[in-house]
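Email to the structure team, subject: Putative MFS family arabinose efflux permease model.

Hi all, the expression group asked for a predicted structure before they design truncation constructs. Nothing fancy, just the tokens so they can compare against earlier work. One-line instruction: predict Putative MFS family arabinose efflux permease, return tokens.
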Amino acid sequence: MTGYRQVLAVPGMAPLLGVSLIARTAITADVMALTLFVVLGLKLNYAAAGGVAAALTAGVALGGPLLGRMIDSRGLRLVLLVTVTVQVVFWLSVPVLPYGLLLVASFVAGLLMVPAQALSRQAIAAMTTPEQRRAAFALESVQGELSYIVGPAVVILGAATVSPEVVAWGVGIAILAGGVGIAVLNPPLHAEGEAAAAAAERPPRRQWLSATMIAALIMAFGTTTLLSGVDLAIVATLREAGQVSWAAVVVVVFGVSSVIGGLIYGALNRPLPTWLLLGLLGLVTIPAGLAHDWPWLCVAVVGSGLLTAPTLGRVADAVSRLAPPAVRGEVIGLQSSAQSAGFALGSPLVGVAIDLSAPAGGFAAAGLAGLTAAVTGYLLARRSPARTAVPHHAGPAGLGY
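Reply from the structure team: attached below.
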């Protein structure tokens, strides 16, 4: 655990992880909060709720690189001022908006979502040495898993015991608190030795959007496609067994396993290749479909959980190493967009597989999506000319070959 102590001892790191966790927990719960408001508050069906969720997700996917470019050119605080203001106005207005306006407002809110995850990743890359980054990004991925465990659960509990309107206001307040906290901390987004490079003219996109970068983005997309599909496959399996109320327990087991896996991986002396982690994640996901009740499903998802945070952390580390300082915000924004697109595609992809076969087919489809992304990323990175210029132990720009 020495690596973690060194990372947390970096000035400003522990407060940054703390305030970004607040924002990320609220942002993770935003889709659930809107879904419950549409269903319970507006008394509409789940299809209508899905439309609002899709609008928000589409906005997030499109807004990632745009906000990243703004961060590169205008700085952290201006971007936070704009996005926090938009989020406060949106979440305060949710309870009074008719459905049509809520659709439009959700897209705008997604487009200008507080980039807490992207900013924390960019700051981690700037505040740590190359030797510390694997442990640092492991902590960041564990932080993400904690937000997925806590955020939706708190929203569901609040909607059931108080009201969906109050929950919407609570989400807005939490995003405000996290965004303001990051602005007050104002973490550096470039290391000391990168100041000149960051101030230089932006390199052309064709220079940094190489085959190796595309490989990393494809693997980011494949990882979240798999994870989104697994969530739906869990629900489908337990619904068929008449045990859907136990889905929350299985999801918590999955999340806790991911936290444990992330902490173990970050403490290892030698990293594993990105493609290998994702490929293993895909492989261990497929046989989870053999479980047909909640106790066995809890056991079956442990393997996938142990590999989830390490894979997410490794992808984030690879992207940060590949990104030139002058465009790091845009590149990390692209990673966020790729992951948002994966989350959006995973559920319908696995849903089709389940409809055409059985819940076990959902796990198979999710696992194959991860395997396909891993193989594609491996082949693209192997063909990249940049590979020859990178030290042998690191592989192409830190992808681990």
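The CA atoms of residues 160 and 243 lie 20 Å apart. Confidence is low (pLDDT under 50) at residues 386-398. Ping us if the truncation boundaries need rechecking.
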